[in-house]
Amino acid sequence: MHYAEVAVDAPAGRSTFSYTVPEGLDARIGAFVWVPFGSRLVRGVIVSVSSNPIDQATKAISSISEQPPLTDAQLELAHWMAHHYLCSIYAACALFAPPASGRRPRASLSLALGIDLQGIEFSSSEREIVSRLKGRAGITEHAARSSLSASAFRRALNSLVDRGIVVRDESPRPIAVKPLTETFVVLKREAELSAPTVLTGARRQRQIYECLRTLGRPAGYGELRSLCGADRTSLRALETKGLVETFERRVWRTPLGRLTGQEDVCLDLTPRQAAALSRIQEGMDSGAFARYLLFGVTGSGKTELYLRAVEHAVRLGRRAICLVPEIALTAQTVERFMARFPGRVALLHSALRPGERADEWERIHTGNCDVVVGPRSALFAPVQNLGLIVLDEEHERTYKQDDAEPRYHARTVATRMAQTSGSTIILGSATPDVETFHEAEHHDVHLLELPQRVVGTADLPKVDVVDMSAELRAGNYGLFSQSLRDLMTSRLAGGEQVFLLLNRRGTATMMQCRKCGQVVICPRCSVSLAYHSARERLVCHRCGYSSRVPSRCPRCSSTRLHFLGVGTQGVVEEVHRLFPAARVLRWDSDVPSGVRSDGSLTTAVRRGEVDVVVGTQMIAKGHDFPNVTLVGVVSTDVGLNIPDYKAGERVFQLLCQAAGRAGRGARPGSVVFQTYNPDHYVIQAASRQDYRGFYRSEIAYREEHSYPPFSRLVRITYANVNEQRARQEAERVTQDLSRRAASGDTKVFGPVPAYVWRLRGHYRLQTTLRGSDPSALLEGYYLPRGWTIDVDPGGVA
Q: Which residues are paired to 521 by β-bridges?
């Protein structure tokens, strides 16, 4: 008898449980399995196999997934993540699971064979279930439930199963996404001799025959249909006449076919680029872990160095992962890699169609690609013989997973992955994360600098900081300063393109009553509802709730309601009013994710089909459009006063990245920062593109207040629909932790209401742990349901 220790997908104090391995079941370490857990069947991963059980009474594994088990390296990384991020082992293992592999088994119910129902007492709910099962075998739980409530049905069913009256059979469901095949047609060798005779008068059949003869190779049915109008009837007739034969062949679904592709342009390297590449190649040749910060201004040719580094990895017989911060950036990045590595690039992200994701994953797993491109989740692709990891725009907060367990940071996990595989990791940015740059200053990261542009004009764009208070005093109450309006007029007249950035969606940020001052608030969250004129709805940007625009104030019934603030839709309306002939494109998260990821937006801008692009931070990240010569930041103050120690850093990075979109072609670029805080050190440093000046101010502030990198943080958050219970539980845990921390260097702060105090109907309180190793305070400490742990939090939540 063998036993498997299984990490399960269930909330529990323990991380693994012991299960019996049934005879004939190939239970390998790393395999995904389905196991009984209480009254449910849950998913799990086998982490060890032995002949001795940990528990005296063990249940048996129900089934094993058809998917390949995790490798030793993946399991080792999952265990490290579980320890580092204080999450379950299963949650870390699940990151490596192939797409569509977690379908819950289908449960079927039937009465036990030979059961005599006479004399058995039933509750009304039990009787209803039994009556539906009489004379029927293998019906679903949904069919057996009938009119019972979910809770009543669950209680009655569990009782019937425990008493042996009802048998629940849970069998694995087949994988939802299956390999795609297509019918292929090929001419027989003897076809040329008999064709003139048997094809007399058969015009469509002759067309198919001539098409196949011209191609000189097997052709798919879809290809023949487009080339010569082939149909199934004509193909069957040709097969009956012995001229062709058909067969089924696997075809790969790929998102890359939707991309336009571009010609590979391999430019000569500048001396700075060549020196940086040489350093990187030396590290790769050593076969040992090495980490580089490629600190280069926007347009300095960082992507070309990524491509050259991947080429070197391939020459060494190894493969690469290139991460980008946004799905919207994958299209243009993949196009660069496709041109350099035709047929050897894979793309992974959540917006792919299920079949495409499954096929791309399989191509990677079988080693049929050299480089994988995608956002943070692509880091867990099954890449064999990994030699290089690239994080483009390494400072971006989207590399932090902060809304589900495990709450990991891709940069940290990539570093660990590179350490264990002996790989090289390149962190690229024009505005590096303060903590990364601090590491580079102290030699934990090799610093490589690219201080000059190599694309477009040699100089960075000129930045004009406009004081909007002065604009108001001059009588300008519009969205755009006179300076920005004049520049837009001249650039649009010259056929150039304009980017307008405002990091807020919608038309207006809130709706307020002029009589009593009441703001219309989301009923589930403690945030104001934003007005979206395109939908004519008020929308919560936190939970997605929407409602019609009220005609009266919900507090005083006054009709004096008006909109305040402005979002991207409001900017679009203002552009249409001032420049009615301009073609305007809005680019924010209200645009469907499929449209953002398929490259159609970037293609429209690159082809000159758009004059003005209005968007949120999405348009500031990594885009390379040579005809964009003006960038206007409508309000640089957005995000500057958020209660977050990283707020200033984030605004600085966003402003510098936005400014970097201008002047990347032959014509010089201009940038306008509109602000009510023109003397703020963040805005002044960003206007000069002075990262080091900003860094000196920021690192001094961090050291003074013991913020990272001079300490580490862990944030724990409790959420409950009952406000009083939320406060009581948060106070209880905070007091416990304060007592535990009394003898160490970890300090406990809180509990305090979260930045969004009420979210999706739950009241939230947060406690922050700060010290050299705050995670140690939580080791062995049980946090009940409702608590979440965020190690190294990325910002307010």
A: 528
What CATH number has the domain spanning 462-507+566-690? Answer: 3.40.50.300
Q: How many other CB atoms are there within 10 angstroms of residue 396's CB atom? A: 29
Query: Which residues neighbour 447 within 8 Å (Cβ) at sequence distance 6 or greater?
Result: 292, 293, 295, 440, 441
Separation of alpha carbons 546 and 760, rounded Å: 13
Q: CA-CA distance, 716 to 777, in Å (whole number)? A: 12
DSSP 458: S
Q: What is the mean pLDDT of the chain?
A: 87
Q: Please, are residues 134 and 118 in contact by the beta-carbon 8 Å criterion?
A: no
310, 388 contact by CB (below 8 A): yes
Please determine whether the domains at 261-450 and 712-791 fall in the same fold group of CATH. no
* pLDDT confidence bin for 423, thresholds 50/70/90: very high
Residue 662 has pLDDT above 90, yes or no: no
**Residue 459 and residue 671 in contact, taking contact as beta carbons nearer than 8 Å:** no
Identify the pLDDT of residue 389.
98
Mean pLDDT throughout 120-146? 82
Q: How is residue 684 written in tokens?
A: 């002044």
- Helices and strands in the chain, H and E counts: 24, 34
Q: Structure tokens of 16?
A: 């693994």
Ordered by start, the domain boundaries in the chain are 2-94, 106-171, 180-256, 261-450, 462-507+566-690, 511-556, 712-791
Instruction: For residue 61, give the DSSP letter.
Output: P
| C-alpha of 36 from chain center | 31
Q: Classify domain 2-94 by CATH number.
A: 3.40.1440.60
From residue 340, give the alpha-carbon distance in Å to each of 137, 308, 453, 625.
58, 9, 22, 20
The superfamily (CATH) of domain 261-450 is P-loop containing nucleotide triphosphate hydrolases (3.40.50.300)
**Residue 295 in contact with residue 432, Cβ under 8 Å?**
yes
Rounded distance between C-alpha atoms, residue 281 and residue 286, angstroms:
9
Q: Are 144 and 129 spatial neighbours (Cβ–Cβ below 8 Å)?
A: yes
- Rg from Cα positions in the chain: 31
Helix (H) or strand (E) holding 653, with range, is helix 647-659
Q: Cα–Cα distances in Å, from 509 out to 305, 633, 651?
A: 42, 17, 19
| Contact in structure between 663 and 460 (CB atoms under 8 Å) | yes
Closest Cα partner for 189 from 213, 215, 221?
213
Alpha carbon 2 to its chain centroid, in Å, reads 39
Per DSSP bridges, beta strands 63-64 and 32-37 are antiparallel
Topology of the domain covering 712-791: Alpha-Beta Plaits (3.30.70)
Q: Evaluate whether 673 touches 467 at the Cβ level (below 8 Å).
A: no
Tell me 375's DSSP state: S
